[in-house]
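To assess whether the prediction recovers the assembly geometry, we first specified each molecular entity separately, as shown.
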Amino acid sequence: MSHDLSVMMLSWEFPPRIIGGISPHVFFLSKSLAKNGVKVYVITCDFPGAPAHEVIDGVEVYRVDSYKNPSPDFATWVYLMNMNMQKEAAAIASNLGGQVDVFHAHDWLVATAGIGLKHIFRKPLLVTMHSTEMGRRDGTHTANEKMIHETEAWLTYEAWKVVCCSDYMVQHVKWVFGLPSDKLVMVPNGVNSDIYENIEKKEDLKSFRSRFALPEEKIVLYVGRLVYEKGIHILINAIPKVLQKVNAKFIIVGSGYMKEQLLNIVRSMGLEHKVLFEGFVDEKMLINLQKCADVSVVPSLFEPFGIVALEAMAAKSPVVVSDTGGLSEIVDHETTGVKVYPNNPESLAWGITRVLLDDHFSMLIKQNAYRKIKEKYNWEKIGAQTKLVYEEVLGQYSSSFWA
Amino acid sequence: MRAVIFSWEYPPRIVGRLAEYVSTLAKQLAQNKVETYVVTYHDFMTGEIKEPSGVTTFRVTNPVRTHIGVLTWVLTLNEEVERATANIYYKTNQHIDLIDVCDWHFIPAAVTLKNALNIPFIYSVESIEDQRSPNPNSSFNMAIKSIEWLGFFEARGVNAKSESIRTEIIKIYKVPPEKIKMIDPNNPSWVKEKIEHYKAIVGGHGIDES
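The predicted structure of the complete assembly is given in tokenized form:
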């Protein structure tokens, strides 16, 4: 296949290494770009059992030994990992005879590698800001948080274009880093709905469901890290209010520093028999849970995009989300889901019961939601949109003194 | 010959003995018709200056102002060292013969530049972490040692300033003895020896000795 342009993507996670949302994002985006005629090289961290180099649907993936330097803390590890990533990426780009048109970094975790490569090869750098330290921590309070924030600011300063996955994030990033509007571009995140088509037969799902809930119990599903910004504590506080009206089982998937605290709250409420903490689960189990869920809840306080809501919509599970960040854009209230007040257990309980008590409404919103994700959050379209951004940047670059 | 020296200290910034060493080396290299650049750090006096001695200095600062330790400060500063060196490279018809990295701080930049642009480097060792630190096996010090190791591994040649440092490098980092050249800066002919080492690294071309 001949290629119009080539991109080197830097990401600290790529399957099978999955830490958060960047991994699936880079995986599907890179495959879609390759399908759109872009030559894609992904430079990422290593993972036990994963090859150092492989080609996935035309995407060349290089995994770098990222744990060879002892590190006193996470942030120092990140910068040391960047040192190793940059060294490998430099060698690969050099062997290609400089045939890399664009460097594309994902988040501050690969900032220094991307910035250095830009200057050494004199090629444009793009960044996708998936989140910000300011948003994650609700401000910057410690030296560590300030350092990460300043690294993010530096990265967005060095980038030719800053890509965000929602209009909310565009405004947030513009405000946090004081960026000019013409530097920002919105390209949505996507969801791979195909994986939800190949699930187990209905009878098997019924048996799967019975492992978690009684037939008369509705399933309320939460998928996400157990951290403050995800608002899981709001859901826990809403549980008694929901149970006053509906018999339900609450399944919590994910882990995080709030787990012990949340378990104690559930215990103190005497609701251990109604709330299941499942921790991390494998992909098949997650998909089955999403298919079985009578409602999926995303109660985030800060949410740059809200991929969990999209995945639930692709699994045809009705969604209740807090009206914040990217979630506000994904869900149309009472059409493709229910939006509730953020940080408000009463409002969240209302939204959950609104869905669980009205089967007709539940059916309607999940059908609408599925249609929306097929139309708007389709990776093939997102790859084409991203390619257009690269082409625009390269057009501007061609008249610069670096070209 | 065109040489770029990396040093985290250079007058007026003086932390230890390295500043004076680099200053003397750079001036004498320039006198010996080596086109000499020094890429160094200064908090605010940034940019390129052609000194009366003929040495061109390129001072950079760190765009990240808040840090949790010297390691994060050093590792981020390396990107600016790369930027400065890339500017020299593109301004000089894409040709730098050699980089001389003085101590561990800017080894990451030298390693990337070697891999990206095929510029060889010499690692000039003022001291090593095992000598500097009372607890060289903490994760912090081990991280610095891992950067030193990277420098020894990737460098085309190593300069040690004394026989004792040379012995320590061989013992701790298992560097082949023939890779390390001992050049004592107390020896009156040390700069001449440095130039000879440079010549050996780049293949003996480029220095006008007339």
